[in-house]
Design a protein that fits this description.
The chain is mainly alpha-helical. It has one domain: Cobalamin adenosyltransferase-like (Hypothetical Protein Ta1238, Chain: A). Helix content is 61%, strand content 3%. It contains 5 helices and 2 strands; from the N terminus they run ββααααα. The protein has helices at residues 27-49, 54-75, 87-102, 117-142, 147-170, and strands at residues 13-15, 21-23. It has a two-stranded antiparallel sheet with strand order 1-2. A hairpin with a 5-residue loop joins strand 1 (13-15) and strand 2 (21-23). Helix 1 packs antiparallel against helix 2 (54-75) and helix 3 (87-102) runs parallel beside helix 5 (147-170). The N and C termini lie far apart (58 Å).
Length: 182
């Protein structure tokens, strides 16, 4: 069995699909890292949920598969035709958002990102997703990305916010409105 270490990154560079080497601080690598962190955090959420919400876990796991495609697309600076963000993925997220939103009271104030363990992890994932979105936006200025990729990540952060609200309410945790006097 080959060792996991290659030593090729010891000088501060990393390889992209196709063999090109770039600095580990490259905008593309920042975006890949943010997507990877988000995906790992979604794995934590699935481990917390366990079997309590199988349909929700399925949404999160589907998203993990999508995020691997996003990472591969980002790692391929020549954007291979087999790596695409499907419009159906965006539609599915919008459907999930609508389903959760229909079960929630209207939001009239900012709320604090707190509550149950799952909800707080979802809020954390939302924040990581927003950072990934900023990284993708910066990369897009240097190396244009598919519009669907930017749309997907934007919808995903909305879904994570909505899911956190839903989980809190479903588990009987009242939302904490931001009190600007504190």
């Amino acid at each position: 069995m080959a060792p996991i270490y290659t030593k090729t990154g010891d000088s501060g560079t990393t390889g992209l699909i196709g063999g090109e080497r770039v600095p580990k601080h490259d905008a593309r690598i920042h975006a890949i890292g943010d997507i990877d962190e988000l995906n790992a955090l979604l794995g934590v959420i699935i481990s917390i949920i366990k079997d309590d919400a199988p349909l929700f876990s399925e949404c999160i796991e589907t998203t993990q598969h999508h995020l691997f495609t996003v990472g591969a697309l980002l790692a391929d600076p020549h954007t291979s035709s087999y790596l695409i963000i499907k419009s159906e993925w965006i539609s599915a997220i919008e459907q999930w958002i609508d389903e959760y939103n229909d079960a929630l009271p209207p939001l009239s104030h900012f709320i604090l990102p707190n509550g149950t363990a799952v909800a707080t992890h979802l809020q954390f994932a939302r924040a990581v997703c927003r950072r990934a979105e900023r990284s993708l936006s910066a990369l897009h200025q240097i190396s244009p990305l598919p519009a669907e990729l930017l749309q997907y990540i934007n919808r995903l952060s909305d879904f994570l916010f909505m899911a956190a609200r839903y989980i809190n309410i479903e588990q009987g945790h009242e939302e904490t409105e931001w009190d600007k006097s504190k």
